[in-house]
Amino acid sequence: MEINLVTEALKFMALGMGVVFSFLIIMIFVLKAQAALLTRYFPQKKIEPVKRPNTNASSNETAKVAAIVAAVQHHKNLKG
Hints:
It contains two helices and no strands. It has 80 residues and is mainly alpha-helical. The model has no long low-confidence stretch (mean pLDDT 88).
């Protein structure tokens, strides 16, 4: 009785890969179904951003200019 080990190995490899592939396909469908059920029964609440009134636009630009001036002065102090 002669058994071809290469053929048997290929059979086991195909069987193993088929099982893993089938499991992954089934898992994808189960996760999609789970996501559909969760979004149906537990929808996410829409969060609206808080709108802040624009009190003083020039103060924002003043703060930017002050930050740039401070950065330039700090850079000059490190070199000097």
